[in-house]
Amino acid sequence: MTVINEALEKIQAAKKITFLTGAGVSTPSQIPDYRSLKGVYAGIEQPEYLLSADCLNHEPQKFYQFVKLLYHPSARPNVIHEKIAALEKTKSVWVVSQNIDGLHNQAGSKNVVNFHGNLYDVYCRKCGQNVSWQDYLVCDTHQDCGGQLRPNIVLYGEGFTDATITLAIKAVEQADLIVIAGTSFQVAPFNQLLYYHKPQAEVLAVNQTALAIQEPFTMVQCAAEELFDAIKI
Q1: Which carries the bigger pLDDT value, residue 92 or residue 215?
Q2: Residue 45: inside a domain, yes or no?
Q3: Catalytic annotation, pick one of 81, 116, 142, 197
Q4: CA distances from 169 to 48, 69, 95, 102, 198 (A)
Q5: 2 assigned to some structural domain
Q6: Which residues are annotated as a binding site for Zn(2+)?
Q7: Would 166 be classed as within a structural domain?
Q8: Where are the beta strands (DSSP E) in 80-128?
């Protein structure tokens, strides 16, 4: 039995699955990742600073010009998002995603924790009003009150809300199968969520490069869309 077939059997057999997803889940939708040779950070000095609370506060136009590069409004869910959403018809499914593109929600997944937020959720820092992302891409000043607009994403130097952490932990705790997909799984605190899985839960990782996880798991080293395309619903 190939490792892909073994992974497919685990997914079919599981009753409660939690997917922990990263940038590799969205690259088939033509959304670039961050750190690859063709990623968003390629050729940019101090990209983490450009996505930091310090940059937002002290050099807001530099932050704004960079964050606009992360928007890909024409992107659509791919087979990975679609299969995860379809699995909800027969199983208890949760998604905890590092991605800020909202594609899991767009695909129809109901139980989604956007761990790092959502680019398309924009609000005014002065009055708190929600504003359309379309307006934000035109100007980062709120027309109603003159306040600064920003996307509701977690920037470097910002903390996570207790509600987000609690819901993500709950999603991991309830699963009998954890599927890590499209992520190197090296960024904390996201990679620390695995600590909360049930002792009897199985862990499956699907990624183009092998992961180093300090506990038993099944590694499927391939593009995530290759495995998900083979899932029968």
Answers
A1: 92
A2: no
A3: 116
A4: 26, 31, 11, 20, 11
A5: yes
A6: 124, 127, 139, 145
A7: no
A8: 92-97, 112-114, 117-124
Q: What is the pLDDT of residues 103-144, one digit of tens each?
A: 999 999 999 999 999 999 999 999 999 999 999 999 999 999
User: What's the rounded Cα separation, in Å, for the pair 175 and 172?
Assistant: 6
The pLDDT value recorded for residue 32 is 86
From CA 131, how far away is CA 142, in angstroms rounded? 8
Q: Tell me whether residue 58 is in a domain.
A: no
What pLDDT digit, counting tens, does each position of 67-113 carry? 999 999 999 999 999 999 999 999 999 999 999 999 999 999 999 99
Whichever domain contains 27, its CATH number is 3.40.50.1220
Give pLDDT, residue 37.
44
* pLDDT at residue 38 is higher than 70: no
Q: Could you count the other beta carbons within 10 Å of the beta carbon of residue 25?
A: 32
- Domain of residue 219 covers 1-31+76-116+176-233
Is the distance from CB of 5 to CB of 222 less than 8 angstroms?
A: no
| CA-wise closest residue to 170 among 216, 213, 113, 214 | 113
Annotated binding site: 124, 127, 139, 145
Active site residue 104: no
- Split into its structural domains, the chain has a count of 1
> Which residue reads 């869309």 in tokens?
225
- Give the chain's mean pLDDT: 94
